[in-house]
């Protein structure tokens, strides 16, 4: 039997707030920009937007976990958000992000409102996770009726083979 030579490496660690929608009054508001459904054909653009904005874990198959919506300007995806995890009675809103060139135009709020209404119409409660230092997003979520439930440490772990670890270590010249 051959020994497993895989190791685990923490590639990112963040302090994260879990927030749950408590005040549903904002769910009735109308988004400011036209919103489009996103699908498999949009994944390359979704991945590019996620690379620029770093909303948290977002991979090539993340969009398969739930409904994703976006805002396009001149045909280019400039903002997106979607659903990811579902727990009895709750649906997570995830990957809320706006390209830096389009921040401050209400895109994130519009996408949130659309998803919040969709989730509430299915009899569920929206919740989300946000990096503890992302004060701008936390302020938006609080204005929309979300409240912090808990703070926790989130670590992204990746498997590496020992030879990958050896090859990735920088050696002094």
Number of helices: 4
Percent strand equals 35-45%
Q: Could you report the average pLDDT, rounded to the nearest whole number?
A: 84
The whole-angstrom Rg is: 18 Å
Structural class: alpha+beta
Listing every helix as H and every strand as E from the N terminus to the C terminus, the arrangement reads EEHEEEHEHEH
CATH topology of the domain at 24-129 and 136-145, which one?
Aminopeptidase
Total E-strand runs: 7
Residue share in helix: 10-25%
State the major sheet. 7 strands, mixed
CATH architecture call of the domain at 24-129 and 136-145: 3-Layer(aba) Sandwich
Structure commentary:
With 173 residues, the chain is an alpha+beta fold. It has a domain of 116 residues: Gcn5-related N-acetyltransferase (GNAT) (Aminopeptidase). The chain has 4 helices and 7 strands. The chain has a 7-stranded mixed beta sheet. β5, α2 and β6 form a beta-alpha-beta unit. It is globular and about 50 Å long. The termini are far apart.
Concise description?
With 173 residues, the protein is an alpha+beta fold.
Write the layout of secondary structure elements.
Blueprint: E1 6-21, E2 36-38, H1 43-53, E3 68-73, E4 76-87, E5 90-98, H2 107-121, E6 125-131, H3 135-143, E7 146-161, H4 162-168
Parallel strand pairs: 5-6
Antiparallel strand pairs: 1-6, 1-7, 2-3, 3-4, 4-5
């Amino acid at each position: 039997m051959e020994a497993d030579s895989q190791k685990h490496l923490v590639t990112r660690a963040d302090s994260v707030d879990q927030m749950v929608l408590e005040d549903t009054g904002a769910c009735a508001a109308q988004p400011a920009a036209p919103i489009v459904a996103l699908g498999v054909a949009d994944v390359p653009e979704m991945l590019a937007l996620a690379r620029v904005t770093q909303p948290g874990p977002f991979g090539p198959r993340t969009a398969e976990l739930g409904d994703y919506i976006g805002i396009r300007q001149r045909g280019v995806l400039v903002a997106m958000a979607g659903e990811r995890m579902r727990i009895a009675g709750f649906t997570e809103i995830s990957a809320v992000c706006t390209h830096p060139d389009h921040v401050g135009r209400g895109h994130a709020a519009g996408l949130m409102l659309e998803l919040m209404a969709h989730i509430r119409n299915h009899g569920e409660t929206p919740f989300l996770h946000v990096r503890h230092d992302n004060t701008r997003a936390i302020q938006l979520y609080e204005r929309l009726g979300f409240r912090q439930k808990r703070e926790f440490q989130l670590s992204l772990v990746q498997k590496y083979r020992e030879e990958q670890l050896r090859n990735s270590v920088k050696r002094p010249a």
